[in-house]
Amino acid sequence: MATGNWTRVSEFILMSFSSLPTEIQSLLFLTFLIIYLVTLMGNSLIILVTLADTTLHSPMYFFLRNLSFLEIGFNLVIVPKMLGTLLARDTTISFLGCATQMYFFFFFGVAECFLLATMAYDRYVAICSPLHYPVIMNQRTRIKLAVASWFPGFPVATVQATWLFSFPFCGTNKVNHFFCDSPPVLRLVCADTALFEIYAIVGTVLFVMTPCLLILCSYTRIAAAILRIPSAKGKHKAFSTCSSHLLVVSLFYGSLSLTYFRPKSNNSPESKKLLSLSYTVVTPMLNPIIYSLRNNEVKNALSRTIHKALTHRKSIP
């Protein structure tokens, strides 16, 4: 409905991958559906195993459980709607639905940044102060750190989503993306967004780059501590305890940087969609695989859990 030169938008159209042939979209649907199911099963399995096996009740696996729960939420926000646009060609999303999707996208994204920083701090304490580790990372401390990791997502998501969707929209209501991300929605606004864009830059520095710097500081101290270990076996053992987390951090921040910090001249909408898939679809699937394949404790716990489940099933008459 038009009011003067403004348009009151009641819904948006997600362009998603509509420019591709139908056959390619069908292939993408099958691919993303498999990845989606693997993500849900993998992260759910990590949660169940770390809860069921008492050997995995350490702080590291407490934070890993939080990460898996976060990845499930992150996936549920984006992937089901994307699958709907590919299968049923249902590209419309309501105004409220778009705002809600953006809200939870920011919430889970910021929470993941801080949670990865918390996990880096946990590895720093474990390697640099192993004797004091159980005392420093006691149950009360780990709960406080988890809450502190989740909390920043609330104000960031509330301010950014509420502010952006309070702007008037004009012209087209087509969002050139497969979900309601801030940059493509912002292009539809017909008002001065300079202040909002400044806030977005400041918010990115504070809530995305600050955790990244904390991770770098933690791993700088970890690297220095590992280099002081005299034996090669000791160095390998120390590094192996944080290698999975380091790989997860590299994947997450690497894909995020390629998506949002590239020069605009090299940042076409189609290339950004492909890059966005890396941290919204692929990374949540890889995290449980990385922690399962590169961690003997998790692999052994999985084996024990499966064995117990099969034994219990056989014992039932």
TrEMBL record:
It is found in: Cell membrane. Pfam families: 7tm_4. It comes from the Eukaryota. The keyword Thylakoid does not apply. Coiled coil: none annotated. Keywords: Cell membrane, G-protein coupled receptor, Membrane, Olfaction, Receptor, Sensory transduction, Transducer, Transmembrane, Transmembrane helix. GO terms for cellular component: plasma membrane. Belongs to the G-protein coupled receptor 1 family. This is Olfactory receptor. It comes from Otolemur garnettii. The gene is LOC100963452.
